[in-house]
Amino acid sequence: MHTRLFYTWSWWWLGKLAVMGSLVSLLACGWQEPWAGAPPSPTTDEGLAESQEPLVPLPLHVAADPARVALGERLFHEVRLSGRNTIACATCHRLEHGGADGLPRAMAATGTSLLRNTPTIFNVAFNAAYNWDGGVRTLEAHAERVLLSPALMQTTWPALLAKLRAMPDYQVAFTALYPGGLAPAHVLDALATYERSLVTPNARFDRFLRNQPEALSPVERRGYDIFKAYGCVACHQGVNVGGSMFQKFGIFQEAPASHDPARPVDLGRFLLTQVLRDRAVFRVPSLRNVALTAPYFHDGRAPTLEAAVTIMARVQLGRTLSQEDTHAIVQFLHTLTGEYQGRPLTTVAEKD
Amino acid sequence: MRLHWHPDIRTIWRPLAMVMGLLLLLTYLLFQSRTPAPIRDTHFHEALQNITLYDVQLTRDVLLARAGLLPHVDSLAQTSRALLQALATLQPGSTEPSRDVAMVLREQVNLLTTVVEQKLRLVEYFTADNALLRNSLLYVLHTGHVLPMQTVTGGQSTLGAEVGRLSHALLQLLQSPQSAVATALLESLDRLPRIPLLQEELDLLATHGRRVVELLPQVDTLLRQLLSIPTTRHLQALHAAVVQYDARRAARAQVFRLLLYLVAIALLGSLLLLFTRLQAKARALRTSEEHFRAITDTASEAIISTDQSWTIMSWNAAATLMFGYEAPEALGTSLLQLLPACSRAALTERLVQRGDPGQPRHLQIPIELLGIRKDGSEFPLDISLSTWTTAQGTYVTSMIRDLTARKHLEEQTRQQELQLIQANKMTALGTLVSGVAHEVNNPNQLVLMNTQMLADTWDDAVPILDVYAQQADDFRLGGLPYPEMRDTLPLLIHDLHAGAQHIARIIDDLRDFARPYAHRAQEPVCLNGAVQHGVRLLRHLIQRKTTQFQVALAESLPPVWGDAQHLAHVIVNLVVNALEALPDTGCGVRVATRYVPEDHCLILEVADQGMGIAPQHLDRLCDPFFTTKAARGGTGLGLAITATLVHAHGGRLTFQSAPGQGTCVCVTLPAADSTLAAAAAHSAEAR
């Protein structure tokens, strides 16, 4: 009787081995790594021939997963993402204010402002680097840095995830959209997907570029010409009218000192790379919707577009612009305001 | 309770452990030898390819930008970002099996990353400087074009000429950026006239011109630096490292596969070994079982094992012989049905307590009971029980002996003992009788002699007394008157004599009976001769008793080893008995002899047509002093003597009789051995 028992036992073991082996091989085959997708390529827009213009219109449609965009939008406006449940991403990047907060410098959690001017959240998909010093290269990295920064959102991943887990609809949404459910990478991905969807196409200038010459008035047209001729376009170029390179702030002259002499001089990218060449080098900001994102420059020293244009011309190009030129350029800059969700962006910014 | 489901774990833990160990090893090797994850490798190679492509794209765009053919630097920015992303995916994950190989790989990847980042930084600087250069160039060209047109007043031709020379120098510089040309340009810039109205523009022109001179070599240096960065070499090295790594992993997997195969073989071998050992053990077990079964089967006692409710579980061959049931029909039935009702109680009350598990308990004394065979006959048996208890219950083994033969033997022994006692008695009696006969014989002889004398004396005295009696009246003799006494006294004396003679006869017979047979010389005797001798002796009696006396003697009988006189004595006794049994002379007596060759013996028959013998007397015929002829003076010793004589010759005496149908006495005597007979004849002749 014991021999029989041994026989059945050994057969059972062999059977188990076979099952295990097949499971292992299945696992090995089915195991996949997530493959990061390529970024959208704005240079290949549908229906637009290869153009020699230094400025390119925004694509009219950007592919995005609507469910993830919706989730990202919820998270963007979610105050619980901050440590004290007081601020959300949308607090500084106010969509109704051109994607910025209208302050010279962003408000820190402690109340004092040591940070730089808030860049707009619109069209960030087309920027090559983020922040004034270009320290972050991806939106996910930027969101993570902001979330974990003690000066900004002041949260930690465990606390954040716990808060999100406590809300069942977030749990359900994450489980439905991401394999693995609620995780830091997925939270960042949702936010980034939403931010990438914040595109403002169909500005009047874009329509001009798409062979609608009547979209610009003659003054604005002249402003564009000056913009090109005086060399502004050397740096403020591409699809986002900037945002794709770094340049020194103060080429022909030293940039004027900031308003508050007590603050240290902002050395820009040098603080990051410690290369002497990078002293006072900043990322060239995008000029799209620039009419809505006053004040300007990294410390918000220029309250109006005219002031900004004047400073730029003198410091970067060594020119003193005439009144008409300034006006024309400013008018041109106003045509860079696009549409979001079918309606043109508006703010309190005046148009002169 | 712990290992109840497998009580023999102690015996099989070793092979079990070995098999399980081998299986675990097999599983481990299976995991180790799986082909390296192809998807990750595809991603890796794809990333490498992409990096190569992006690098080329970057270089191309940089050159285009330098040549002024790139409208905007978005492509540069995007390619840079794509390069960084691709590099990020190259970073090895956490599932590297061999750390030192992964280290090499990681080193290569880090080197590549450093190099690429270097290149990207240079691209960044190049972009910035190129933008400024283009700006300045544009301004110089634009102003160089516009400015001469603005010189309205005369004497400004030098400006135009200077600007022309400036443009030429610039063109030369752009064509061949050498320091001599640069110096010429700078000098040309210095020589620009000073015109108050256009001073600002001229100053700006000069500044831009100087910037061009300054930036051009800078941009070119950056470009050359950028182009000289050995990204391709590093990519190739990384690719080679990856291929090598893959090859090593494949080789490793191959080794593990081989090990897997070997371990599988070992496992198979060990399983086969276990299997053959198992078979051998099973065979040994079977042999041992057969051995023990043979013991029970060849035992002469019936060995039956039952459970505690007397249901038969094993039944051996001896049990079949004893009870008549075959094993298949006996198994499963109750042992109690083999015993009659009276024995069952005795058996069941023998089983009292249970012993310790596993320890057999012997219930001491075997008990004698009766058993019932299959045909219903009862027989005595002797049953001894022993019990043993296991987890499954109590079992009883019964060992049964058939006592029939023993009892029979016991009975026979008892009979023989009785006969022995009887023989002893007879011998003692013989001795006694011989003594008594001798003692009695003496006075008896005296009596015989004296009675003879007395008779003679009376004969002599009678005439005298006659004479006296005539003279005397009332002559009484012995209380009786003389004439009565004279007739009676001779009768008295005669009776006295007869009585003494009878006593003498009895004494003779007694003596014959008690005579210890000294071994007289034995000789081969012819039976027929003895018969004839005996018949001759009894001639007168035969003539008186019967008219039908037959003698039938066989021819050529072998001799009998013994005493002729004794044999004649036997014959005489038997014939006398036969004659005295005849009621009248019409009945006959027949004496016959014959030889039975199969038994090598002779048979003497004496048959009579007499009264026969009552059956209750047949057993006692040869008993001494047993006689039916007491009235006629039989002593009852005749047949006793005959029997003794016959037995002394090694023969047998048998009787066949029924009342009214006569009697046949049969004497069986062994024939003498022919060689012995011949030897004896020789010795007799020699004497």
Give the biggest beta sheet of chain B. Answer: 5 strands, antiparallel
Structural class of chain A: mainly alpha
Biggest sheet statistics of chain A: 2 strands, antiparallel
Mean pLDDT of chain A: 82
Q: Could you state the order of secondary-structure elements of chain A as H and E?
A: HHHHHHHHHEHEHHEE
Number of beta strands of chain A: 4
Rg measurement of chain A, Å: 26 Å
Proportion of residues in β-strands of chain A: under 5%
Side by side, the strands of the main sheet of chain B go 2-1-5-4-3
What is the straight-line distance between the termini of chain A? 103 Å
Oligomeric state of the chains?
heterodimer
Q: What is the percent of helical residues of chain A?
A: 25-40%
The unreliable regions of chain B are 94-98
Mean pLDDT of chain B: 82
- The share of residues in helices of chain B is 55-70%
**What sort of overall outline of chain A do the alpha carbons produce when their principal axes are compared?**
globular
Overall description:
The complex is a heterodimer of chains A (352) and B (687). By secondary structure, chain A is mostly helical. Helices cover 38% and strands 3% of the residues of chain A. Chain A has helices spanning 2-30, 66-76, 89-92, 139-148, 157-165, 168-177, 184-196, 204-209, 218-229, 270-273, 305-317, 323-334, and strands at 246-248, 281-283, 339-340, 343-344. In chain A, α4 crosses α7, α9 (218-229) packs across α12 (323-334) and α11 crosses α12. Mean pLDDT of chain A is 82; it is low at 28-48 and 348-352. Chain B is 63% helix and 13% strand. Chain B has 19 helices and 14 strands. Chain B has helices at residues 9-32, 38-67, 74-90, 99-150, 157-175, 179-190, 199-228, 231-298, 317-323, 327-330, 341-348, 404-471, 482-514, 527-537, 539-545, 564-581, 615-618, 638-648, 674-686; strands at residues 302-307, 312-315, 361-372, 378-390, 393-402, 476-477, 480-481, 523-525, 548-552, 560-562, 588-596, 601-608, 652-657, 663-670. In chain B, the strands form 4 sheets. In chain B, strands 2-1-5-4-3 form a 5-stranded antiparallel beta sheet. Chain B has a 5-stranded mixed beta sheet with strand order 9-11-12-14-13. Chain B has a two-stranded antiparallel ribbon with strand order 6-7. In chain B, a hairpin with a 4-residue loop joins β11 (588-596) and β12. Chain B is rod-shaped, with a radius of gyration of 75 Å. Chains A and B meet through α1 and β1 of A and α1, α2, α3, α4 and α7 of B.
